[in-house]
Amino acid sequence: MPQPQKSRTIAQDRFAPLRGQLLAAVQAFSQGTHAIDKMLAAIVDDMERATNEPVEIFPVAHHSPAAAIQILRRLQDGPTPKVIFVELCEDLQPVLPGLADCQLPIALQSFATETAGFPPDWSPLTVVAPLTEFSAEFQAIAYALSHPEQTQLVFVDRSVDHIFQWLPQQEGALAEALGHSEDEESISEEADENLHGTAYGVQMGRMEPTFEGFQEVLLSNARVRHFSEWWDQYVESSIVGADYQTYREVMCLVGSLIRRLGQSKERLENDRKRERYMWTRIKEHLAQHKLQPEETLFICGAAHTASDVDSFGTQTPHRDPIPPRTQTKWLYGIIPSSFRSIEQQFGMPDGAISIAESAWKRSQEALGLRSLAIKDIKDTSQAKPAPKKTPKKTTHPIDPTNDDDASSSPIASISSVPDVLGFLQRPPQLLEQDEEQLLRWCVEIVSMARENGYLASTADAIAIYQTAILLGRMRNRHHPSPYDFQDAAITCLEKDRTPKKRNVQRLCEILLGGDRSGHVGYSSLPPLAQDVYDRLSALPVTLKGKTIQRALMDFRQNPEYSACSDLLWRLHYLLGKNNSLVRPIMGERNLGQRALQESWDISIGKYQAPLIQLAYEGVSIEQVLERRLLQYAFSSKARTVQALEATEDSLLYLEARRLTQRLGEHANDLLVQELAADAAQDIFERVRRLVHYYRSTPEGLPPWLQHFVATGYSHFSTMLPEAFSDRGTSPQQISGMLAFIFTLESLALSMGCERSQLMIAIKQSASLTQDPEKLGILWAAEWLLSVRDIEEIRSFFDHLLENPLTLAAFPRYLDGFLLALTFTPLVSRLIVELLSKAFERLPDQVLMPWLPSLLMGLRSHSNTLLPSILQEVAQIYPKTSKELDAWIAPWYRERRKRKTTIPTPLVQEIRPALPTLSNEERSIFQIMADHPQTTDALAHLFGVATTWRSPETTETPASSTATAAFHDQREADIHAILRHHPQTTDALSSWLGLSASWPTEPTHTPSALVSAKPHANAITEYLEPEAAAAAALLHHHPQTLTALVKHLIPNPQSV
Amino acid sequence: MAKKKALVQEATEAQAVTETQAEIAATSTEAASSPSVATEAAPKPSNPPKAEENLREPAEVKYAEELAWLESVDTGNKPFSWRLSPRMIRTFILGTQPGEKLARKIDQKFFGDATLVERAIVTLASDRGLLLIGDPGTGKSWLAELLAAAICGNSTHVVQGTAGTTEDQIKYSWNVALVISQGQSRDSMIASPMMKAMQLGQMGRFEELTRCTSDVQDALISILSEKYIAIPELSTNNVVFARPGFNIIATANSRDRGVNDLSSALKRRFNFIHIPIVTNKKSEREIVMFRTRDLLRRNNFDIDVPAVLMDVLLQTFADMRESAAAAASDDQRLESSLSTAEQIGVLEDAILYGNFFGEKLLTANALARSVIGGLVRRVPEDLSVMNKFWHAVVEKHAKENKKDNTWKEFSEGGKSIMSDMSK
Question: Are residues A28 and A39 in the same domain?
């Protein structure tokens, strides 16, 4: 080992001219020299200090091929270091052996769903540290893993936990820290290609200046668009071919410059914390293992070489305390990454990593090096003695066989090539490969463009080459950079429109390497993921493929696929509906349904990360699913609906009866505690589904569900009065409760519930609410329970419609009835009647403002309620316009019919005074009364049998007679009036084309009537002329109507 | 429209002058471009085509002094017979960067992506023609003029493409009187601007290339690839060869792309450069101020537009673009393309109006008047679009910015003029 003393003196001599030049530059360019003077001097000092440090500091930049090349050469040719310290989170180290079966780029991941001590909105926390082949850290890792006897690898940076500890502990702080990458994501069109998700990226040697002003000046002076372009052009390309010592010195200079000028305060503070951490860890390790600092290598970001913390360097004994970690439980693993994800994560321009990769390949070729790859790691796992590979043909100047004391260390050997200033002044050497590569690109882009529909030819290749060279010259470049080439290609090829999918910009990106995504091999996968791979292997798809695979499953032909289908559904459930991993294309999973065929899009090969993340939670998919369901149902926030949902999901995705039962019982417990009715609708729908499902199974309803229904029946019944009186409970919720009660009543009664409970609750509710909507629901319920009679309701509404002051409330009642449809379809006829009456009788000023809200109201029920209403409407209303002329609404018809069907004795009592009844008619009535079957049949045809034989009417003959009498009386009066004022009717009938004769009533013989019996229409015809005439009359002369109404109903009968 | 016509006229006038100017430029570039010559020529009042007296001076005259200075300090490689090296041209167009070691500051003249300008310059140094394509009012012609001025010191070899442009106007035509009296010869031939540019090794410009019919456009193919024009009517001396330094800068309107599509043979010979609409508010502000000052200098007054009003104008245009983008049909958007050039027109109009008819100071009211007057072209469609926009967006701004009266005044002014228009 060379003595540090000696190299220092040499170094001081060497750096003198550099200092001189820098000072001269200061004097030439600036007025107030003090600050810059000091700073430039400090940069050289920093470099000197870093190169004199006994621990061999190897400064790197992120994803820099030059750094990778240099470390490769250093490790192959220099003395073998006993320990390599790497600036990466120390707790990520244990996952490294898993690299053996991976394909780069991959990312080391750390993950925590439950956090302790961090703001709650941060979780889940994820950290990724992407690794590419052309990064110094990977090369060092690969070296250490393939030479485990000689070299030990130690990660020394702060743990993942500290990353988050050191962020300001506020709600938004994490989002801010991630802000950069999220911004990029929104710009990128293919955001879903980001394989990292919303992870916090950790990267070694991040060099990008965070001080905006500095970066702006830097970029505009260099005529580049992005920092990585600047880096590539000014640093990367020149140091690739430099010797080791020069590389270190230049990187230290650049790192120091950027640290001193280009960093924002927060970043600097964070850096200092990390440096203290790293140096303390290094010293601890050295002390523990009794190692000499000279035997070690420390790979860190170039900016850290200029650190100003006290603990910098092994020469000071100063150590800093390491802060403790929080209680957060971190899980570690390896996930695949991609170039594009890395670019997005760290805010690099598109294609930057691909360009770095091509530079890496080119320099490797030029220098005759062979990189360490993952397969080198694998070799050692087979316990081969890991000798140094036979030295490759290298073109670099150091001769490894030289045994001279001074040159055995690369540091010393370089001192014979001392001139860092000279290096900085020389233009970088042009590699032959650069020129060749440019030519190749020019040719290839033309052929690619042609494939993509551009009219490109050799002439274009020539033009691109020429333009690229010209652009490079103009931008002060020794050789056109890939960015220049890209510009040139766009200039020469892009015309007014893009012929196919890809434009030239995109083609260039593809040409320069394109996106590449990594892959985690089977043996590196966690057990859960391996299990998934194993179980899906029955499917005829290649799971390792990066493309989307379509799996077609016919369960009749291949019954073994049904297990795969189960697994896919579980995955689909666990990963969320919008995951890209597995997507059902055809087939769905519902309770009690079993698809015969299914097809899935599977791209597990491409998106391994979510699967691996899932594996942190358990060892098999089923276990994870069970845990998730239990967590969901038993969480402190869970309510009955959530528990029921979990129960249903457990039925759908897991065949675990005990689990289902446990969840169901829990739902039952929760229901008892439930105080509000807001989820009633949801609960009802879920329970109904479950009941229907279980009824179809051979076992029938399980006990827990029976209990649940019984509990629900009595629970909701008890809650009804409160729900009706409570203003906070909406009519929808009440209708949900009633739906539960009525729909599941029979089941509940069989479980020992009593209907009287409901009856009492309903009766109690009647006095508790004045809300029209709730009243509507209540009446519907009462009607269903035979507590209220439909005539009562009807007449109430008639009354309501008469009074202009109450008109406005009508729609709200109607809304209530509409909601009642959810638990009984019987009200649909009433609803249609009420609606028709509303249209008929509501004045425009009430009707018009209500219409939009009615439409909107109906629309929200379009799936559930509307069909039954429409069905009813279709039955009631005529189907053709011809029929319309001779049509009257059944509710009016009923009234007419009642007149014709009223038993004779009653009529005779009341009607003698009526002049309209002829003897003939009386005889008809007589006949009909004598032979009620005919009329019954007729009535049955019309579906209006209530007034004749229904028990209600028979029970209360007085009221029905009174009603009938009233109606007949009214009609008689109308007749009288019409008769006294025949002009109106005459005019009307002439207008209608009827004869103006005034028959008392159309004459019909009983025989005619009887013969008409089979044709129900005949009766309607019989009624029609008069009704139509009256309707038309009323329509044309509203005054008459008003007069009539006033005359007839001075005091409307209240029912 | 008026402006375009003026430009055409100017171009044709310029053709007459070109001869002399070009000769000067060709024979003694130094003399033509040095500021001393220009100032010497000025005092003579009798001669009509004096530089100072022209309504609008071409870029090479306007920036003559700057160009001459740049040429004197230019040490870079100059392709062909270019006056400046590519890097200097970039400096001329984009202004000096802090890192450039130039003794004087050069103002930025074209506001846009630097890459775009670099690509344009490089294209002209290569074998291909340059086609600037973009929405109307994005500064295509201005960039073309600057490039031509910087490269060869003459931006007036212009052919204006219209539906009526014939091949004669691209190649050559005959002076009929001379042909009758002397017969066909090089003397009786009238060279087109293109041909003159070829003869002098300068930049030829072709405005609105896609407005010409395809067969006329194709006349350019031979010029671009063979670099000569044959004159079959003559038996001797019948080929006009292009001298080194000749190239073509064409502009095309991406809105009229469908009118006369370029043939693929011609497309191949042009490098297309898309000039995007400026959406960056900061640079748009700079452009509007730069051009408006420039235009107003013709009327010999300089005016300071209050920053608030500038904001109002820019915001209004940004909002209008947004609502135009959201509109479903053409009837729901304004006919105007709402480009930067429109903004310049509006601002200039407002300033002129204020200066000549109102108070000297630009008011929000006058600005609103110009915005509406300038953008409402179709009545009633545009007016109703504008009415809707005004009440939905401008009113909202007026209500939000209660402290500042400008938006309110602006909104009121707009409403009053709209109600006048709808009478």
Answer: yes
Chain B, nearest residue to A221 by Cα: B99
- Put simply, the answer to whether B122 touches A470 (Cβ < 8 Å) is yes
Average pLDDT over residues A295-302: 84
pLDDT, residue B177, reads: 93
For residues A766 and A783, give the distance between their C-alpha atoms in angstroms, rounded to a whole number.
12
Closest chain B C-alpha to A459 CA, distance in angstroms? 9
Cα-Cα-Cα-Cα dihedral sign, residues B206, B210, B212, B214: positive
How much is the pLDDT for A581? 80
Q: Which two tokens stand for residue A485?
A: 């080439």
- List the single range of A104-118, A167-181, A389-403, B367-381 with lowest mean pLDDT: A389-403
Contact A221, A16 (CB under 8 A): no
Helices B281-297 & B340-357 angle (0-180, nearest 10): 40
Q: Give the Cα separation of A608 and A520 in Å (integer).
A: 8
**Do residues A220 and A78 share a domain?**
yes
Total domains present in chain A: 6
Please answer whether residues A112 and A125 qualify as being in contact, where contact means their C-beta atoms are separated by less than 8 angstroms.
yes
Across the interface, of A217, A223, A494, the residue whose CB is closest to B272 is A494
Query: What is the least distance, in Å, from the CA of A495 to any CA of chain B?
Result: 5
Together in a domain, A21 and A122: no
Residues A763 and A766: their CA atoms lie apart, in Å, by 5
The interface residues of chain A toward chain B in range 93-122, judged by CB-CB distance below 8 A, are none
Asked if A463's CB is within 8 angstroms of B126's CB, the reply is yes
A464 CA to chain B: closest CA distance, Å?
A: 10
A114 shares its domain with A228:
yes
Shortest Cα distance, chain B CAs vs residue A496, angstroms: 7
Answer yes or no: do A850 and A969 share one domain: no
User: Does the residue A694 lie in any domain?
Assistant: no
Residue A201 within a domain: yes
Token representation of residue A908: 């005779």
Q: How confident is the model at residue A218 (pLDDT cuts 50, 70, 90)?
A: confident
- Could A487 and B262 be called an inter-chain contact, meaning their C-beta atoms sit closer than 8 Å? no
> Using one digit for the tens of pLDDT, what is the confidence trace for B362-379?
888 888 888 888 888 877
| Rounded Cα–Cα distance for residues A63 and A107 (Å) | 13
- Domain range B2-275, its CATH number among 3.30.470.20, 3.40.50.150, 3.40.50.300, 3.30.70.100: 3.40.50.300
Q: What is the pLDDT of residues A24-74, one digit of tens each?
A: 777 766 665 566 777 777 778 888 888 888 888 888 887 788 888 888 888
Instruction: Identify the bridge partners of residue A60 per DSSP, sorted by sequence position.
Output: A301
Question: Cα(A933)–Cα(A50) distance, rounded to whole angstroms?
Answer: 115
CB pair distance less than 8 Å for A496 and B86:
no
Name every chain B residue with its beta carbon within 8 A of the beta carbon of A473: 77, 86
Phi, psi of A157 (to 5 degrees): -75, 170
A311 and A185 part of one domain:
yes
Contacts of B86 in chain A (CB under 8 A): 470, 473-474
Is A474 close to B121, i.e. CB distance below 8 A?
Answer: yes
Contact B115 A487 (CB under 8 A): yes
- Do A125 and A217 sit in the same domain of this protein? yes
> What residues does B160 pair with on adjacent strands?
B207
CB contact under 8 A, B267 and A467: no
Interval B150-175: pLDDT, tens: 999 889 999 998 888 888 888 999 99
Of the ranges A399-403, A458-462, A1013-1017, the best mean pLDDT one: A458-462
Q: How far apart are CA A409 and CA A7, in angstroms?
A: 11
For A475, the domain range is: 432-511
Domain-by-domain residue ranges, chain B? 2-275, 281-421
Taking the Cβ of residue A8 and every Cβ of chain B, the question of whether any pair is shorter than 8 Å is answered with no
What's the mean pLDDT when you consider all of chain A? 73
pLDDT tier for residue A904 given thresholds of 50, 70 and 90 = very low
